């Protein structure tokens, strides 16, 4: 990797580390960075070890992984559609994953079954959106985007129906989960592993993605296997979205805001944008979750509220620019 690519990633990595240190250190009991390091190295008081290792650090790592997953998924969808308004939330992938996960919850399953159901829901949503947009002809980016918005609204109606027939005692947790609540995140390691493996598999395809972003005809003329690459993007975006939804519920607009903002600063080279999205998306959600914990402390806001307050005006601005 050249120096021009390494330097922005190093800056983003330092910013991500700073965001995580801030998140772990701030709370009802403040913990200094030196004390956090001491706890990680096996020292520190019993209270500090409990706060850092059992409460704050797992939640912070889960927020980082979820933000990175959503941002990378959004970047992939935007390359595929050549449209900055595309992201898993807008195209209905998050809604499909949420429906799959909620069905597994209502059936009494947990753990890997919920994850598999979320992935199946996201994959089904992908096939549904692209199948409807294709119709009897060929799909265009604008038609696909409009189809995704309609399908996302349909998933919202299905989720409302499921909430209406759910047991009363399960409703509070399900509602907070749907709004995106990091307090329900368990182990961060599955999401971190999926993020790392996905980036390791996709980033080497950066040159092909750069060509695909110029259009499928030009990509095919330059020797890119367009159809297999498109299907790889579909499946990767579904996997990333399903893992994020399973970890923290339905969180919108991260996949919309982060890739677009990074392109404004760093350009359109996917070899740089994809790993930058993983770092910047993670840092953004860590900071949003920290803010959600502090705004009405000791109560907590769902982190999805914070990302929506950021994402809605950004989405409207992008829609205005692309009219």
From TrEMBL:
Location within or outside the cell: Cell membrane
Similarity field: Belongs to the binding-protein-dependent transport system permease family. FecCD subfamily.
Membrane topology: Multi-pass membrane protein
Protein name: Iron ABC transporter permease
GO function terms (MF aspect): transmembrane transporter activity
GO cellular component labels: plasma membrane
Keywords: Cell membrane, Membrane, Transmembrane, Transmembrane helix, Transport
Record SUPFAM superfamilies: ABC transporter involved in vitamin B12 uptake, BtuC
Segments passing through the bilayer: 12-41, 61-81, 88-107, 113-132, 144-167, 187-205, 301-320
InterPro entries, per database record: ABC_BtuC-like (IPR037294), ABC_transptr_permease_BtuC (IPR000522)
